[in-house]
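Q: What would this chain look like folded?
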Amino acid sequence: MGFFDNARNVRLQQELATGPIRPSQEWFSQLAGEVPEFGDLTGQIIAVSGRPRELVDHAVLAATIKLEAELWLRRAADAMQGRHPRITWGNIKIVLDRPDYSGRLLSEFLSTGEATGSAINNKLVEYLTGEVVAKLVAQVQAGEMKPSGPTQPPPQQTTSTSTAESFDTPITAAERTPTADTESASQTLDDTPVKAAPSPPTASRSVETPIPVAPQLVPPRANRRWSGLLALLGVVAVAILMAATVRVFSGNDASRSSSNAYVRDKPAATDFTAGDCSSPPSFEAQRFTVEGEQLTATIRVRSLCSDGAILASDSTRVTIQDGSSTVAAGIFDLATSPIAVPPSDTYLDQRFAFPVGTYWRLPDTLSRVSDLAIEVVELGQSSAPKEISASQINSTPRVAIYGAPPIVDAESAAIEGLKAQADADAALVSSAVADRWIPQISSKRVGLVADGLTWTNADILREHMQLRTRFSQAVLTWSGSWSTYSSPDFWVTSVGVAFPDSRSALDWCVANEFDRDHCYAHIISNSRGPQGTSAYLN
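A: My prediction, written as structure tokens:
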């Protein structure tokens, strides 16, 4: 990690520990809800359980809720590692341990992580208000939260004292750019004899270092002995909390989000009850957009059943193919957020969001959307109810909780994604920035050892997507296609902003807080050699 990165992290952690947290207004306004207060959940659990308040240890119950949240957040941060520099377990723990901690404060911080942080916030809210409430209601009803001493009133506010000492060591997201104490990719691209330029690698080449699949975001269970009983009582508890099931697809709901709209020629019924039909729905791609760090696919879902269908598997794999190339593949937990597919005379336009690491192609590299193939497979247990309540249906996109299992070759998909993106950017590079000074912010090749990683194609593509999210004018090139690179086998990320001289390009590096090892000025050209086409910060 370079000097500027260290300084930036120290400043961020100081701000998180004591200063005001400035939320992203854009992302905060789109959250499904704020993280609930642990004390408020304690009161709700006791009320639903029907147990006298004086027979429940409020402090222990609140601490148990906090521990459940911490365990879940740590696993979520691990699964999302590297997708946004702010969203690390170390940073989340700092917020949780603040003397003035509140659920709103945590949500405000998570919103600064854009799509990644917002996805964690929304899943945490679902987890705490659903599974945790149901589980702890059952434990309270079973008498497991009885006070060990004199009874005490409920605390006014749950403090942030840690109940999980094993979490003292922060987990930081892996940095994705070279550092001064590792091999600098930028230093290897000039002042050496030019070699014959190889073609970009093909998907069939062997890969010795496959990218590991991120762990599933499934919160740990505290007591396996009660799993069967908790499941049964949990359903009852959640039913009580919902109060009444409101049927959907009723009346003309003009306020329903168009991004997740039910389209039909006749007024919608107010109820949605799935019938007995074994035919799976059909899926057809409609459009793709890049929203923050994630690729969002709008998919038209049609039921082949007259009564519609409900998709509610806790492990649903969605794979999108462009010919033999994988566009995106991720696992979705639809058990906590089911999808209600309307009857066969209409359709649902549902959005699926793929975070960085679960997609390999951007919209400008795709062929006709109508030609894309979509496969949806329920890998896990489906707990689809016959009837779905309005509180379980929302217009927000379903976000993949982790990458697809090994059935999708991440390396092959990444190679195809890198080649497609470089091809898509080639025209812009040739017409707008060739033979001019531009900032180069990354250069990586397979097998490069830098920043604690032995880089794979999947790692290289992931970093490029993250940089592209940060800098909208970023472009990708294959060094073997241009004569000003001395090493012909690097994937290079540059910012497509042309400057009149090297000093101006280096000033851009400084203005964006890059150091010498992470940014330098370079000329991309096919009319000259490497000599004199690179300039570095002092």
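The radius of gyration is 26 Å.
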